[in-house]
Design goal:
Layout (H helix, E strand, L loop, with lengths): L9 E3 L16 E3 L2 E3 L3 E3 L8 H9 L13 H11 L4 E4 L3 H12 L6 E5 L6 H13 L4 E7 L2 H10 L3 E4 L9 H5 L7 H11 L4 E4 L5 H9 L4 E4 L13 E4 L2 E7 L4 H4 L9 E5 L5 H19 L14 E3 L2
Parallel strand pairs: 4-10, 5-6, 6-7, 7-8, 8-9, 9-10
Antiparallel strand pairs: 1-14, 2-3, 11-12, 12-13
Helix pairs in contact: 3-4, 5-7, 8-10
Length: about 325
């Protein structure tokens, strides 16, 4: 098998720059029917985003996906519509999610975005749920995941997904690889490239993002949107519990398949970790990411200076 590479193994090659100042570089992206300030989205995990944060993200023009754990989805959608904001929720593949979709259809409470969020998205249970959502809410932009192979991307698109979320076992709070041996841990970058080559619709790269440059590299390799978990943990708005340990402050961050999330002690594929508390807003972090992307566009030779220029960037693999 050909050797795989990850973000730290690749260096992007600059092109002739046309911009006078980096501030003129445009980081906005159209995803579905709406335009957003950045091609990044916080992971739909209970320790990363809650209803209050989701509202703030929408108000400030960022894309978000609300998690599916213990949330009154109908009330949340109602609130976003009352405020004139986009609604973006998550569902699973069990009976409660079928009931929710049926009810949303019956009361004509149609969310703008739905993410079918399960650990192994390349499954017949996913196919069945995609068909159900599309039959009941045909105008909702539907995201499915997670998967990590080109064949899975092809199937989810053919089943009806408008976007596919790619990446398995790469997250810092995920233990799927250690528990099962499956996933794409250690070659997220290569996986994004492989999946983007067959994708006819936008893909969301999910997992293994440690540096701003990893976001840029994901976009160069073919992702349209990049999902971020651990990097967004620990901020003032982050929902994780604030605790003190050895005179230092931390916030808790846990995986969606962890015992912390499910309350179970079996079939665990996630863990809870402590991340240093940051005495700043997550929106300051988003501004930093925007500035990094603007700089990256200037190196990429954007003319016009938009995210589209990343598709012309070449890179070298150094291992």
């Amino acid at each position: 098998m050909k050797k795989k590479f990850d973000f730290e193994h690749i260096t992007l090659l600059p092109n002739l720059s046309y911009v006078e100042t980096r501030s003129e570089c445009d980081t906005t992206i159209r995803f579905g029917k709406h335009k957003f300030r950045l091609p990044v989205v916080p992971a739909n995990m209970e320790s990363i985003i809650n209803e209050e944060m989701a509202i703030e993200f929408a108000k400030k023009g960022y894309f978000y996906v609300l998690h599916r754990f213990g949330v009154d989805q109908i009330e949340f959608i109602r609130e976003t519509k009352k405020l004139g904001l986009i609604s973006s929720i998550s569902i699973g593949v069990n009976n409660d999610s079928y009931e929710l979709i049926d009810l949303l259809s019956d009361i004509d409470m149609v969310p703008d975005y739905i993410t079918i969020d399960i650990a192994h998205g390349h499954s017949l249970k996913m196919k069945k749920m995609i068909k159900h959502v599309k039959s009941k809410l045909p105008h909702t932009f539907l995201i499915g995941g997670n998967v990590c192979t080109p064949s899975a991307v092809i199937d989810l698109e053919e089943w009806g997904c408008d976007s596919v979320k790619v990446g398995i076992a790469g997250g810092s709070a995920c233990t799927t690889y250690h528990s099962t041996g499956f996933g794409n841990r250690g070659w997220q970058a290569n996986m994004i490239m492989d999946c983007s080559k067959v994708a006819k619709k936008p893909i969301i790269a999910d997992g293994s993002i440690k540096e701003h440059s990893d976001i840029v590299k994901s976009l160069v390799l073919g992702a349209s949107m990049v999902m971020i978990g651990g990097m967004f943990a620990g901020y003032k708005e982050s929902p994780g519990k604030l605790i003190q340990k050895d005179k230092n402050w931390y916030k808790t961050f846990w995986g969606s398949a962890s015992s912390e999330q499910s309350g179970k002690s079996s079939r665990i594929e996630g863990t809870k970790i402590l991340v240093p508390y940051k005495e700043e807003s997550i929106f300051d972090k988003l501004n930093e990411i925007e500035e990094s992307l603007q700089s990256a566009i200037s190196y990429a030779g954007g003319n016009p200076a938009t995210l589209d220029c990343f598709c012309t960037v070449e890179y070298v693999v150094v291992k």
